[in-house]
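User: For a reading group we're discussing how well predicted structures match intuition. Take Alpha/beta hydrolase. Before you show the prediction, I'll give you the sequence so everyone sees exactly what went in.
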Amino acid sequence: MTDRRSTILRTLGLTALTLGGLAVANTLAARAAERRYPPEGRFLIVDGVRLHYMEAGEGPPVVLVHGNVSALGDSLASGLFQRLAQSHRVIAFDRPGMGHSDRPHDRDWTPEDQADLLAQAFAALNIEKAVVVGHSYATLVALALALDHPRTVKGLVLLAGYYFPTKRVDAVLVSPLATPVLGNLLRHTLSPPVSKAMMPGLLKTLFSPRPVPDHLTESFPAALTTRPGQLRANAQDGITMVPAAERLQHRYAEVAVPVAIFAGHHDRVVEQEEQSGRLHHVLPDSTLHWVPESGHMVHYADPELVVRRIDELSAEKAARQIAAHR
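Assistant: Thanks. Here is the predicted 3D structure of Alpha/beta hydrolase, as structure tokens, for the group to look at:
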């Protein structure tokens, strides 16, 4: 009995040492990632939340909002930010908990919560009647902005979005990371190295059927997305996505601004025929653009088309142009 107890104690001790070592290593790795990809923009305190954003250019405002497991660097890597800055005032935000923005523990951070926060950021930065561009998860944030804060939005550009509730295995898999005790343990020990190991496969899935761009390793801050804090934000977004789609789907017909919907037939993350095709029929003033041979990252596949539609939505006669396209 004594030998068995000793064995158990030794095993527990080794486990504790291993987990402690992983926690230290992950903390050091997170700091290294933040040094490698330091903030390139400015910070704004809104409702007690420290938001990181980048701004450039002059002209009609365009706001870029990235998806899950991502950061505002996505708009830089795709070239959207640079192209738009030539003729627009373009602002890209790190959503709460992503990139270099904070995510306090005092709320659920549903798409509606994030839209409320962005609306306050718009007011602080004097952003009025913007074309809001959302990718993937952020399409729900963009729609919530148009529904709950209609005066802030002139038009929407929705890229590879998720709009109607379905069963999502990925939401079940990430849910433990969002729990208070178990989630804290996993996020600081096992999850960062596992997430890093899975990143190449995830990128292939996101970009399929096209190859992952060669420049992405240097231009996109992937290392920031596997830090313990962002793993929590990623998990929370994963588990709030389906309930948010359930709530918002009943309000889509109320969207009062023109909407450009982009989708790829080969999207391996979201079934776009079911999602974007259905949304196009629900929204009274929308256009649907299928990007050939494209998956989830449609803005990398054809950034020029995305920019042209943004230009049209920014124009004074945007509604007439949308009707002509339809």
